[in-house]
């Protein structure tokens, strides 16, 4: 591994570790301050803090399948780390997305292994939506940013091909 690759990988792992630490710290605060208590409205008719335990995945899908979700998540995380280690993820934005997704996945995986469920605490009041957490936000922001970038890149490549084809016919 080149020195540059080592430095980049180290920065990726440190960044992910910091995000996982923040996620776990917030969840600790949620357990200490929200468990067994009424919702805390942050912004009227918009956002509240509400303690919830999720044994499933997104939107409580696969509830009570914690072990299966844990194994699948662990395998995906290991694959992601290997991709980063080998430098297969190209570009700053793609690397940031990968770090966000890995950190979010790791934060929720820690919960599943430690407690058998994920601690959720962010509740939207303007729409009926499942309670979620910081790790979920990391995964969603990472995935949607990655998808947006990939769609942009495909469109850009198609425009470039059309331009080259038009220039070749001139």
Give an overview of the whole structure.
This protein is mainly alpha-helical. 65% of the residues lie in helices and 11% in strands. It has four helices and three strands. It has helices at residues 3-34, 66-85, 92-115, 134-168; strands spanning 40-43, 47-54, 118-124. It has a three-stranded antiparallel β-sheet with strand order 1-2-3. Strand 1 (40-43) and strand 2 (47-54) form a beta hairpin. It is globular. The N and C termini lie far apart (47 Å). The model has no long low-confidence stretch (mean pLDDT 92).
What are the key terms here?
65% helix; 3 strands; three-stranded antiparallel sheet; 170 residues; mainly alpha; globular
Question: Can you summarize this structure?
Answer:
The protein has 170 residues and is mostly helical. The chain is built from four helices and three strands.
- How is the largest sheet built, in terms of strand order? 1-2-3
- Uncertain segments are none
Number of H- or I-type helical stretches: 4
Please provide the ordered H/E string of secondary-structure elements.
HEEHHEH
- The CA-CA distance between the termini, in Å, is 47 Å
Oligomeric category: single chain
User: Beta fraction of the residues?
Assistant: 5-15%
Percentage of residues in helical conformation: 55-70%
Principal-axes shape call: globular
* Protein structure class: mainly alpha
User: Average pLDDT value?
Assistant: 92
**Total DSSP E strands:** 3
Largest sheet: 3 strands, antiparallel
Rg: 20 Å
